[in-house]
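call fold(seq) -> tokens
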Amino acid sequence: MIGQAKRLAELVKNETQYFDAKNKTIAVTSGKGGTGKSFFILNLAYQLSLMGKRVLLIDMDSNLANIDVMLNITSEITISDFLQNRVLLKELPTNVRPNMDVIFGDSGRLKLPEKRREIIDYLFLSLQRLENNYDKILIDTGAGVQADGLYILSKVDIITLLINPDPTSVMDGYALTKLFLNEYGKREIGVVVNKCDNKEEGETSFKNINTATTHFLKTSLKYLGTINYDNDVYRSIKEQVIFSEEYPGSELVTQIKNIARNSLLNKSKVL
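ret:
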């Protein structure tokens, strides 16, 4: 791994291009698992594709990935093959819907290389070479506050934090925000509140986390929207279908559409 890391560092050093500030790369993160992050980003990608945007969705969870399971697709090559320098990034995208490609993560591999900064830098340099193929690149990060996950967040244009209304989720979201800001300085972070009983519950949850970050971290967050709890979500995951595709008339789908439009226009709601 030392030799690989050294070679990747040389590749990064010799590269002079950078992503243009186009708000092209969006990472969705959460302070803990179970918030519905993968469900949200899959449906967000699908809605963006319906709007005519060419979308690449990357499942960066290289050991507990589930986008492939949610789509009922088995991929022979995954992001872990790229991280171990077995394939080029351009070999990984799989077309799953019109305008929508996915790079799948992996599950059940314990002997993975540490996603050191050099490897993450190489990933984003490789994305440069694909960026003209896509209007939006969405990254589903692993949940939690691991150092490599925070570094990935530092490399993207837009950070979206997904939380639930329960106090533990709000606190975990605050902890992730604090660690990230302490490490990388002030950045604009948007918040989506998932699994809400109603709009008011989502807005209250956002106000709680935003009050804490404003007071203790001197940073205000952006409110991107609320997604209600829906029993059909579990059914769609169980049946391995895209919720937005199966239940297009659902209020939940309308909420995700609005968030997708806001991400395109870089808009947020003031509470």
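The first helix runs from residue 2 to 14.
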